[in-house]
Amino acid sequence: MFHTAYLKTPRAQALILLVPAFGAYTVFAIWPMIDVVILSFQRWNGLSADRLWVGLDNYRHIFTHDPVYWIAFNNTVIWTILSVIFPPFVGLLLALGLNEKLFARGTMRAIYYLPVIIAPIAVATMWRWMYDPFFGLFNQVMTSFGLQSWIQDWLGDRDVALYSMFVAFTWQNVGFSMVLFLAGLQNVDRSLVEAARIDGAGRWQVFRHVTLPALQVTVTIVIVLSTISSLKAFDIVYGMTGGGPAQSTQMLALWAFTQSMQIFDFGRGSAISVTLLLITLAVVVPYLRWSQKREEAAR
Amino acid sequence: MTALSASTVRDEEKVVRLRRDPLLIALWILLAAVALVWIAPFIFITFTALKTGSEIMTTNAFAPPSTVAVENFSGAWVKGNFSTTFFNSVIITVIKVPLGLMISAMAAYALARIKLRWNKLLLVFVLFGAMIPFQVMLAPLFTLVNSLGLIDTYIGIILPYLAFGVPYQVFILHGFFNAIPKELSEAALIDGASHLTTFRRIFLPISLPVLAALLILDFVATWNEFAMALVLLQDKHMWTLPLGLMSFQGQFSNNYGQLNAAIVMTVIPAVIVYLIFQRYFVSGLTSGAIKG
């Protein structure tokens, strides 16, 4: 029979193996990405039959007439810069420490990694309660240390809220960087470290000239992953402040969602999404080229 | 002989260095102190969950509860509609995770072992998806699922979950399959086995450790997912655990005991899975990301 004969060709077998994954991926991941670009040139409330073509109107509106867009943009930039610096840096310090043969280092690694596996929305809920101005953990601890003057409405003060939220984000994400750095430290050549030691190099010199160069690849990967995950910040903002007070914690991902799914302006929401997409591509494309080159060099 | 004694001397040196090195002792104290800070939120939440309303307002945050207020848990369970959300989360996770792993493994095998003209292109195509934040696509995803009439259905959320799990898993499994010696599959193929058989009989069994690691990671990711569920599951009866917790926060925020009990109940499944499968997390995370 034709069917069974055809099935014996590698091409047909490849199709059978590839279609489920690539089918789902193309329809539910790639197509929406194309559709968001199309939507960004249209006016649509998400329900009516016709999607009206309006050219660049949505972009013009978000750039010039939407007072929240640039706040969200700035907050996203601040957030990204902070999350590229702090969680990886703390993660690196922890990894360096926990790479030494210390008592109970396995337990400590587990503790630092634990918040990573908690749902971000649960982290948001936890920390919102800890930031409660009256009964929350933070103000209680301040009071018991006699630091009443430090007491804050952590999420209610627009100068502080973004940074309060970032502390929670750091708590959740440090473990992720730490694990990647711990894995990277496995690549550090032990004999090279010992040789440097014997030659009289101090700890700092060993770190600077042996460990850090060996970690170069890991550093790049951690920084790119941190950038991408910070651009995705959605759950934690939605769950902790909803973008408030007075939009002071608003970010692009949440503002795009709000425009589309709550104000029902799919065109403007999509235009915001597209700008976020372009920022992400500016990080991802160079990274993909870099890793391709690295792979070819390794061959 | 000389080598042996040299290494013994070095070991002794190491022990002495460990014992005496004040820097390492200071380091340990520092790391342990920070670790305490790291678990403090869990302790605080658990204590609060076990306190009565009046005790929360009168006692210190880290004071253990005097009486165990179990009614916080039963109250939160009912008010937060946990039986529904828990059930939905279980259904979605139990179907999505193994199915997603299966289709990813199939595709990864084909990309690694069957020579096609567009192998490389497909790999870049799939890797690209692992990097793009799906948050930018929430609106068109809603549009798509809505036009298929699948809003508020299990299929309607499982299909997008499958799609967004594919890139990372294919990428990792492709790397793993690629590293398996060619001789292994070629022998089977020469003996007349099809690619489907080779995949099922040879590649699946030897990749069990990687599959286990990915299974755990994907379980946690699916269990925790919030944004897509928020958009695609509008009906309360279809909500998953994270959606339930979120609405709980809004509705009952003045009952702190119940709120914290709800947090504990949401967090505990993930914590248990983590504590059991700890080592798989690390290997799963790092097997693809860092190869030296």
TrEMBL record, chain A:
Name of the protein in its database record: Sugar ABC transporter permease
Main localisation: membrane
Cellular component aspect of the GO annotation: plasma membrane
A Pfam family recorded for this sequence: BPD_transp_1
Entry's family note: Belongs to the binding-protein-dependent transport system permease family.
Keyword Repeat appears in the UniProt entry: no
Classification via SUPFAM superfamilies: MetI-like (SSF161098)
Cited PANTHER family: ABC TRANSPORTER PERMEASE PROTEIN, INNER MEMBRANE ABC TRANSPORTER PERMEASE PROTEIN YCJO
A GO biological-process term: transmembrane transport
Residue ranges the record marks as coiled coil: none
Transmembrane spans: 12-34, 77-98, 110-130, 160-185, 206-228, 270-290
Cellular compartment(s): Cell membrane
Topology class, membrane: Multi-pass membrane protein
Segments forming domain ABC transmembrane type-1: 73-289
Keyword match Metal-binding: no
InterPro entries noted in UniProt: ABC_transporter_permease, MetI-like, MetI-like_sf
Keyword tags: Cell membrane, Membrane, Transmembrane, Transmembrane helix, Transport
Record-linked Gene3D superfamilies: MetI-like
Automatic annotation (TrEMBL), chain B:
PANTHER family: ABC TRANSPORTER PERMEASE PROTEIN MG189-RELATED-RELATED, SN-GLYCEROL-3-PHOSPHATE TRANSPORT SYSTEM PERMEASE PROTEIN UGPE
Assembly and oligomerization: The complex is composed of two ATP-binding proteins (UgpC), two transmembrane proteins (UgpA and UgpE) and a solute-binding protein (UgpB).
Keywords: Cell inner membrane, Cell membrane, Membrane, Transmembrane, Transmembrane helix, Transport
Keyword Mitochondrion: no
InterPro entries: MetI-like (IPR000515), MetI-like_sf (IPR035906)
Gene Ontology biological process terms, A to Z: transmembrane transport
Top-rank taxon, per record: Bacteria
Subcellular location: Cell inner membrane; Cell membrane
Family, similarity comment: Belongs to the binding-protein-dependent transport system permease family.
A Gene Ontology cellular-component term: plasma membrane
Organism from which the protein derives: Oricola thermophila
Membrane topology reported for the UniProt record: Multi-pass membrane protein
Recorded name of the encoding gene: ugpE
Residues of the ABC transmembrane type-1 domain: 86-277
Name of the featured protein: sn-glycerol-3-phosphate transport system permease protein UgpE
One matching Pfam family: BPD_transp_1
Membrane-traversing stretches: 23-50, 86-109, 121-142, 154-181, 202-223, 256-277
Function summary: Part of the ABC transporter complex UgpBAEC involved in sn-glycerol-3-phosphate (G3P) import. Probably responsible for the translocation of the substrate across the membrane.
Xref: Gene3D superfamilies: MetI-like
